[in-house]
Amino acid sequence: MDNNINPLILDKLTKVCLCKSITRATIKDKIRNGALTVEKVAQSTGATTGSCHGCRCSQKISDLIDGYVNNEWS
Ligand code: FES
Which tens digit of pLDDT belongs to each residue from 30-60? Predict the structure, then answer.
């Protein structure tokens, strides 16, 4: 993969919740705006409410929240 791809573009292309087609950019935006639990992200985006009931995305959302809290991304 091209290392020069803008991280923001990658976030917009990467689906965190596959069932609901919710991108990493959308999830990060909600986290930045105070959704610091998986439940809050779920309420504001619909993530975790798809056919897998969050089996495939809850951990990824939790990891993104942890990364934000630990200042690993902005
Ligand atoms: S991947 Fe998010 S609910 Fe299935």
Answer: 999 999 999 999 999 999 999 999 999 999 9
Domain annotation for the chain: domains and CATH numbers: 7-69 (1.10.10.1100)
41, 45, 46, 33: which is closest to 62 by C-alpha? 41
Give the span between the Cα atoms of 7 and 10, in whole angstroms. 5
CA distance 27 to 17: 9
**Ligand 1: which of 56, 62, 64 to mutate, judged by most atoms within 8 Å of the beta carbon?**
56
Size of the chain, expressed as the number of residues it contains: 74
- For tokens 């292309």, the residue is 13
* Residues in the ligand 1 pocket, defined by CB under 6 Å: 17-20, 47-48, 50, 52, 54, 56-57
